[in-house]
């Protein structure tokens, strides 16, 4: 079709619509065919004026219609000529679309895409210019018609509708075939221009635009004619490829290949798809490439964990997480949790049967905790490197660690061995003389930094405890001993540990620990003041004296039932301090904890050689041991049983009577002396028939000997007493929780009260049996009452 590339300069008369239309059509043809040509200001203004004149004409040469001034007052002329111009514009553009369709038939494949994009770009420019030129028609006739409900649209929308209906729908199948053919070549590794697809896809979005509908409606055309066919073609392509990959290779090969494929598709989709359609497109590919193979992936997960193949584990996780981070990943999380649990149980089993583990509780605790940490750290690293710190896998790791940490070959079910071992391990880290446990950390790090790192690891295990109250009780006892016996490796380490425990357990527990440190500071000041007062009163202490005054509520130390009879010299000093303390704090009472007191005594033996012959041996002993040894002092003078120049010979009954101790306590100390060969027994045993004397032949290469170490029997009894204390505290905690619940709820069924109590107590797992016992106790104490109507319902008694 021929058209004039120029527009006549002279504007037609305003009253002749036919000549005006010829003028407008010539300009419109030029705009449609060459929108890039510069119309110039005069031509643009003339075309705009021509549209205005056409719409406001009083006479039309079409059909010989004339309008009078009376008609004009009712805007009939504007209505008639606006409609005429709109229809003529529609017909002219439709004619141009037919021309474009004819020209498109000469193109196929990528050439058709290029032709489509070129024409689309040109047409878009034409639509903008035409819309502006016809703005008077848009503002008046079109707007009025739309307000009255007529099915018309503005000029720009009209032009896009004509492109869609008159051109695109004619070439739709061929065009989409060309798009999918190009995509297939790219997927097959051939070179093609993806931008051709992007331009076509962008045009579909514009073709759906209609200023009368919302955004969701505007995307319907794009979704219908492009996105859904694209998804259908892509899923079919990858269905075939997935079957081929599984036939040709292993599941791992499939995972590697599909990971790369989906990465390529993601990158391409970002280039040509609208952002609102990315998820639907990716989900469709995920379904065909991942979801259908989920069982294969889960079966391959355990072998990957066995091999610690982080790269492929990460690929597998990344693939599965594309289908969702919740339920779709749950099968993998279950496999992961079971695997970690079994690995932990095996690690504990391997160390539990060793000679080293059975040698002492210190070794047992160290091997146990290091085995736990080894497994946890190994999988925590995997969690970071392969699972991107996924919260679901992190929870699975924690749950698995909680399972094998609390119940394993070293910690039987129903017991509280795990928290005891953890508390002892922490004690070993913080106690002097445990360098073999405190391992080296990062190169160049200080001892304190290494200690802090190990304390952090130990505290990280704390959150796996099911009986945190047991740990707290035992840790408090260990801390008390370290402070009383001045065995802490550093005050900084103790402060760091308390700070870390505060973060995981709260202030209720750590506040008592902090008060213990305060008592140590105050006690040191008091001891110094006592020494100064003694000098002021002309009383010289006969030996070095260090007294620690501890508040009962803060310290987990028990008072001794038996009353120790102190040696006279020691007793006089203690009496002096008691008088000083009561004068300083009127109304307070001191309870002497002799079982926790320690002393150093110098002893001479006739056959000692070397420095010991001159300086003697220094024994570190308990107060009980001190009282017994002082009875064998040669300066004690003659008496019944004092028949040896090296000291007296005493029976057990004499020692019990003189010291005031229980016979079992005396027997335990005498066993220590005989084992260390400090004493001799007349019959080689320690019983009521034995007679004891200092071993004049005693020799040792060490000048200092520690005889005050805790005995296994004492440790066992102390552990039993501690657990009894824990159970007592638990029962009180359960009772308090029940009272709080019932005070709020007033009336509850038995089942609901049990559930609420279990959920409220976080420090330990309250058993149903213990809750029932606590309910019975509270009924006896008249805090609760069973309902008269239903015995399974409880009422709170105010």
From TrEMBL:
GO terms for molecular function: ligase activity; ubiquitin protein ligase binding. Residues 417-674 form the Cullin family profile domain. It comes from the Eukaryota. Pfam families: Cullin (PF00888), Cullin_AB (PF26557), Cullin_Nedd8 (PF10557). Keywords: Isopeptide bond, Ligase, Ubl conjugation. The keyword Ubl conjugation applies. GO terms for cellular component: cullin-RING ubiquitin ligase complex. SMART domains: CULLIN, Cullin_Nedd8. One of its GO terms (biological process) is ubiquitin-dependent protein catabolic process. Belongs to the cullin family. This is Ubiquitin ligase (Cullin) of SCF. It comes from Coemansia interrupta. The gene is CDC53_1.
